[in-house]
Amino acid sequence: METVEEGQNQPKIRRKQRKSEKIVECVFTPIGAISWKNLRSLCIACGKLNEDLIVNILSGSPLLETLELKFCYGFKKMDIISKSVKKLVLSGYLDVDNAIDAHIIEINAPYVLSLTIEGNLRLWKLLLLNVSSLVEVYLNYDIFFTWDKTREETEDEMFKGFIRKLRHVKELKIGVFCSLVLSRLQTKGFIVPSNMKFPVVTHNYQH
Q: What's this model's pTM, rounded to 2 decimal places?
């Protein structure tokens, strides 16, 4: 995997592009349409993205199968409508330009088969829209932002929202962070869905 570290500059990916790319700490300002025709796996860490750029990346990467965003920011909706993308990873979220205000992120991924949400989410809410094709999901996140509710109330509400949207998923795994939320909900009468596997530590995520 090639790592491109360009600080605050636009990342320059080589013309003879590899099938897998990792881009670290970049502000994307592409001129014109992106054309990464051979790219199958893309990991962006600490990058500033917006909704139009995400669409540009997807439309310019017709073979892209795996998209991983690590502490990326600048977007309010992840509209993953590419039919080629089958695996989506959201690993942490922190808007370094505006860390004070509450943020709501929406994920629309009708063709994705595998979804991972993990790490520290400095969000008020994360909403799943169309995720009807999902087969497997891994949840291991914690929330570091609340608005008009306690942290526990925010965690409980978001976790239950996920469960309602993921009842069709064949395999739903949760890690240590989410197992704590589940334990608290169980004391309030929450019924564990049959597709849930817990506690499962299959990822070595580190803060």
A: 0.85
